[in-house]
Design brief:
Layout lengths: L1 H20 L4 H11 L8 H12 L6 H14 L2 H15 L2 H11 L2 H13 L5 H9 L8 H14 L1 H23 L8 H11 L4 H16 L5 H11 L2 H28 L6
């Protein structure tokens, strides 16, 4: 009996220990996301959504139905909701100690410098300068060393994978929601919908995204010498850097899946 009690005690302690380890405090999560600038990506979501909603207008015969659809999509895919789900994932499924190690990384001067460069390069005020840089790339091509370093960075942090997953999840959720919002006589089957979505995302889609990401990074790090860039990449190749990259990718998947579920639920009473 005593042995059995000890075993139960160990199992109970282990259960609560693992539960504690598997979660992070919201304060720590917010500090990580502020220092890393991870949630700034959602600032562009509302604009992207408006563009996609406009594309769907011709599929609706009734303007009132389109307005209902638009309202549900704006509510379900808002930047505010995306950030909330993103934070929720980090709170529930990341480790407090690992996040504190990430904070230490971002307290490093090199990381602060590179994060500032990344935020500046992606700001709306830099759009025209970036376009001008792209236009001159053929005349002033970057070194192969710089390109190889950026390919290595992409492979390390999974930027292409993140971007593809974000776009695919959003468009797939919108297509499924739009189909569900149609009269039943006009809805297509799940198989037909899946086939049509595969045609939207060709096999070359990931490579196209990779090329775009490398182009943006060429502009972002244009004034960074290769030695400094490689030291930056080495930071992401550490176990802490890899942990954060994977957590970010999983958080994006969680975020857009949750928003898709919310939209589908809201459209439940909209189906005719």
């Amino acid at each position: 009996m005593m042995i059995k009690r000890i075993q139960l005690t160990i199992l109970t302690v282990l259960f609560f220990s693992l539960t504690t380890i598997a979660q992070s405090s919201k304060q720590t999560v917010q500090e990580v996301l502020v220092k890393s600038g991870s949630t700034t990506m959602f600032k562009q979501l509302d604009g992207m959504l408006e563009s996609k909603i406009a594309e769907k207008k011709t599929t609706f015969e009734n303007e009132n139905d389109f307005n209902k659809f638009s309202s549900i999509m704006r509510s379900g895919f808002s930047s505010t909701k995306a950030e909330a789900f993103f934070i929720d994932y980090f709170v529930k499924f990341t480790n407090e100690d690992s996040l504190k190690n990430i904070i230490k990384i971002y307290n490093n001067q090199l990381m602060q410098e590179m994060t500032k460069l990344e935020e500046e390069a992606n700001s709306p005020s830099k759009r025209q300068e970036m376009q001008n840089y792209f236009a001159e790339l053929n005349n002033n091509p970057p070194s192969q060393d710089k390109i190889q370093s950026l390919m290595r960075l992409n492979s390390t942090v999974g930027a292409s994978e993140m971007t593809v997953k974000l776009i695919e999840n959003m468009i797939s959720s919108m297509a499924k929601a739009a189909n569900q919002a149609q009269p039943k006589t006009k809805q297509i089957s799940q198989d037909e919908l899946e086939k049509s979505l595969k045609n939207i995302f060709p096999e070359s889609f990931k490579q196209q995204m990779t090329n775009q990401i490398i182009a943006v990074w060429l502009f972002t790090y244009k004034d960074v010498d290769n030695d400094k860039l490689n030291r930056y990449i080495q930071t992401w190749e550490t176990s802490t850097g890899k942990y954060f990259s994977k957590a970010t990718l999983n958080a994006l998947d969680y975020t857009f899946s949750k928003m898709g579920e919310d939209v589908g639920g809201s459209l439940g009473g909209f189906v005719k």
